[in-house]
Amino acid sequence: MRRVPTSGGELAVLEAGDEDNPAVVLLAGGLRSSHLWRNLVPLLAPWMRVLAVDLLGSGASDSPPGADLRLQAHAGYVREALRALGIGRFAVAGHGHGGGVAQLLALGGGADALVLLDSIAFDAWPGPSIRELRARSGTFDRAAVDAWLRGAVDTGTSHRDRLSELDVEGYLAPFSGEDGVERFERVVASLDGDGLVGLEPRLAKLEIPALVLWGEEDRFLPAELAERLGDALPMATIALLPGCGHLVLDDAPETVAPLIFQYLRSRYLGTPHVHDAGTVTVQLGRPPLEDRW
Q1: What is the full per-residue pLDDT of the chain (293 aa) written as tens digits?
Q2: Domains and CATH numbers, the chain
């Protein structure tokens, strides 16, 4: 883990892999951290320079009072950090709220591939659960923060039994310190849709390989958004994952992590596919018109 200064504060960046390899940037959402990518980083690191970034205000990054924590500001901070690390070209993957930042970062230039996992998009953000959360702003205490975060893990997974208590505690850790409640409240206050509404025309000009991965049982962000993103992104491939919820990397790490790795190795690195033993079953591409939502 290294700390990289930006105009908003220091970002915590979990780095793995050789610095001379092509870079891939991993972005979790404001209420998550680089802990989300724990099953993916070891798979990518032998081939790429992996940078799992905690957004400002989240994870181990700084959380300055009054800092701008909106989507466009986050994209700016991440770009500043990449420049500080000497990175001009990269692939970027984003989950949830981090997927919104990933879209804006890619649109700003420098991205050679994009991966979106159950990402916020368009006018569908913030959804009902986040609007309800924002309505409670200013009322949280330590117990309420922990309860909400644990509930988000329960709601976000279709196979909760696959997570150990250590896995769950990793999601709570960024907000467990003395200033945890204040950090949580700052992130919640920033969760608006500014920067995403009306983005389709700009995404249509983003001619880079894009993989859109979605849990069909996502209770935070409906799977219909995968289709909308697939229609907007000209070089998109859609993978719908049956039996998975919002936290697809927790519900099916043995499927999702290799799928991302093989996609990036083929479409970003341009190296041949190597078939490993075992079967991965997903629905790829756009379904026939009569089967669409």
Answers
A1: 999 999 999 999 999 999 999 999 999 999 999 999 999 999 999 999 999 999 999 999 999 999 999 999 999 999 999 999 999 999 999 999 999 999 999 999 999 999 999 999 999 999 899 999 999 988 999 999 999 999 999 999 999 999 999 999 999 999 998 999 999 999 999 998 889 999 999 999 999 999 999 999 999 999 999 999 999 999 999 999 999 999 999 999 999 999 999 999 999 999 876 555 444 444 444 444 334 33
A2: 2-291 (3.40.50.1820)
Q: Is the distance from CB of 244 to CB of 261 less than 8 angstroms?
A: no
Buried-state track 124-145, b at ≥16 Cβ within 10 A, e below 16: bbbbeebeebeeeeeebeeeeb
* Consecutive H or E run containing 128: helix 128-135
> Which is it for the CA torsion 251, 223, 107, 74, positive or negative?
negative
pTM of the predicted model, to two decimals? 0.92
Give dist(CA 99, CA 111) in Å, integer: 14
- As a whole number of angstroms, the distance between CA 291 and CA 288 comes to 5
Q: Given strand 236-241, what is the order of strands in its sheet?
A: 2-5, 10-16, 49-53, 23-27, 90-95, 111-117, 210-215, 236-241, 283-284
Kindly report the CA angle at 245 between 240 and 251, in degrees rounded to 5? 95
Q: CB pairs under 8 A, 24+ apart, for 169-176?
A: 170/33, 170/35, 170/38, 171/32, 171/33, 171/35, 171/36, 172/146, 173/33, 173/35, 174/32, 174/33, 174/54, 174/58, 174/59, 174/60, 175/145, 175/146, 175/149, 176/146
Cα–Cα distance measured from residue 280 to residue 266, given in angstroms and rounded to the nearest whole number: 17
